[in-house]
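re: that chain from earlier
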Amino acid sequence: MKTLKLAVLLFLIGLLVCSMVIGCSRTSKSVAGTYVNKANSSEYLELKANGEFYLRELGMGIIGKYEIEGDTITLKFDMGLAARGRIRGNTLIDEDGKTWVKR
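^ sequence. v structure.
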């Protein structure tokens, strides 16, 4: 009986760890899509599944690559600059506090 309880406990711990890893990991594919600036719908950020992005902001278009680490996204612009933000579900909040919502 103790062996069965131990096996069930180990199984449940394994499920918990697995669900935490799956639920916390983000990939380019899971965040891919178009995010629109909540305060200005003419501004948007398109995250492509291949790790590239297109940002339309302040009347300009900017391209580059992005990386995801935990809930942090880093946009690396072709001109050598970078910007960071946080991803919370279908919302991205940039360093300036702007909220971008996934369509």
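Confidence is low (pLDDT under 50) at residues 3-25.
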